Amino acid sequence: MDWLEDDYVELEDDHRSAARPAGAVRVVIADHSRLAAEALMFTFDSDPKLDAIGYALDGWAALELVASHEPDVVVVGEGLTGLEQVPLVELVHEAFPSVCTILLRGRLVPEEVRAAYAAGAHDCLPTSCSADELLHAIQAARGRQLASVRPREKAHERL
Q1: Residue 40 in domain
Q2: Fewest C-beta in 10 Å: which of 47, 84, 108, 110?
Q3: Domain span at residue 34?
Q4: Model pTM?
């Protein structure tokens, strides 16, 4: 696979918060914006129930990060190069069925949300969602719920 070395950042164990409980949810972030990815990493790293593994700025790099670490959840933003949002979700769902995906979208267009769920996404949230909403969606996905009823209803209410 051809991507620049800077297309993903994998946090070494000594850079991640050391006191993670055994059941911490392992999370990978895929987003075209380094600033957004790092902000999510900071948010996730400050929650002891989460283990922020790293982030990718490109869809193919995200797939490689998932293959290397098999996280519990992948949070996928819009605008990825190489491999876009829904195709990435499809590949993750097919190759790593135990890995849950949560999409962040600027606009929740009904057809696009349906395509995301059809591809295997566990939830689809607006990029304007609160940190609490995203953390709830991550916990729901980790529990192997299909986007728990409450977050999915909220997503559909926004359509």
Answers
A1: yes
A2: 110
A3: 23-157
A4: 0.80
Q: What crossing angle do the helices spanning 85-95 and 59-69 adopt, rounded to 10°?
A: 20
Tokens encoding 46: 């400050």
117, part of any domain: yes
Tokens at residue 132, please? 């609490």
Give a yes or no: residue 58 inside a domain.
yes
Can you tell me the distance from the alpha carbon of 65 to that of 59, in angstroms, rounded to the nearest whole number? 10
Number of domains in the chain: 1
- Is-contact 21 49, C-beta < 8 A? yes
What residue type is assigned to position 103 of the chain? Answer: L
List, for residues 47-103, the tens digit of each pLDDT value.
989 999 999 999 999 999 999 999 999 999 998 988 899 999 999 999 999 999 999
The dihedrals phi and psi of 8, each to the nearest 5 degrees, come to -150, 150
Which amino acid is located at 135 in the chain? L
Instruction: Name the residue among 116, 28, 141, 123 with its Cα closest to residue 74.
Output: 28
In a domain, 7, yes or no: no
